[in-house]
Structures are given as structure tokens and as C-alpha cells.
Amino acid sequence: MIPLSQQIIALFILAIPIASVAWTVTHEEIFREPREWCAEKSQKCRTFFERKILYIMTCEYCFSHYVTIAFLVITRYKLLYPDWRGYLIAGFSLVWVANLYMSIFGRLRLEIKRERVEIDEVLQEGAPKASAQNQKR
Q1: Is 116 inside a domain boundary?
Q2: Per-10-residue mean pLDDT for the chain, 137 residues long?
Q3: Do the domain assignments include residue 135?
């Protein structure tokens, strides 16, 4: 059995690629077309199962569960227990930490975007003054 300290370190490290994959698929431009197609189809499907499967690509929380399952299969990571209970606890823990990372990242991006808008406003306010000064010369 791996020491608990190493399991916790692995938890926080494994959550990084899970968050990265989930965020990229559900938010970034590279997956915009498939995401929009899935969102559109999820509204039109008749069966519950089809709607939910297609909705997965549009929600980072939902998608992170499936990414986590893939990582658990690849890494065989377990938390606290060496049997199936370790997989269960690891799965929900990884999802929670990955979503914490995505929330922090989302807030950071929003803050950066807000600062850029404020900088653009300041620059645009200064631009007419600069052009007026150049005309006086």
C-alpha cells in the first residue's frame, strides 16, 4: 500500500491533466464545433440517454467524471483503500479537485479579461487627447 502522503500528492497532480482535458473540451475554441453540434443535438434527441450522452461535452463538471474514469483505468490510482473502494474514493476526489482547479482557472481568466477591457477603455479615452495634441502641432 502506498503511503497516504504520496496518495494525496498524486491526487493533486492527477487532477491537473483531468482539469486540463475537461476544460479544453468544454470551453476552448478548438472543440467549439463538436461542442455546438452536441449541444444542438442534445436539445433535439428523443431519448433521455441520447440527450445525456451528447450533453456531456458541454459541461465541464459532467465531462470531468468521464475523464477521471479514463485516468483511473490508465493509472490504476486508488485512494485510502487497496480495493474497489479506493477507486470510488479516488474518482470522486479527483473530480472534486479537478473542478476546484477549473473554478480557479475560470475566475483567473475572467479577471484577466476584465483587466484587458479596463485597459482598452483607458487607452481609448487617451487616444482622442493624443490625436488632438498632434493636430495642435
Answers
A1: no
A2: 93 97 94 92 87 87 95 96 96 98 95 92 76 58
A3: no
